[in-house]
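S.,

Sequence below, as promised.
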Amino acid sequence: MRVNTYNFGKIDIGGKVYDHDVIITPTGVQADWWRKQGHNLSFEDLAGLMKHQPRELVIGTGYGGCMRVPGKLIEELEALGIITHVENTREAVNTFNRLEQEGTTNLAAALHLTC
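The prediction came back faster than expected:
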């Protein structure tokens, strides 16, 4: 599943445009992704994604990188064997597309579209 375009507040994934934060899993897109504490990501916010057992996870922290991803969360993900990439969403989209093109299996993304 390829991200065609991303601009502040809008993302085109596989030809469908979303205007809310999204999670991309190997089986599709979860639209309207919300976090318990808004700009602070927690393990609980990724619960739906975890059932897909991603091998690699790309986290987009927003256009300007305002969403906070605690080091403890990254440690928890890596302890589960999940390779984690954390970047502003502009860069995260590029990383996701590159990994997808390389054929990375069980690839997922959690993308904050604004801020």
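Helices lie at 47-50, 71-79, 89-101.

Coffee later?
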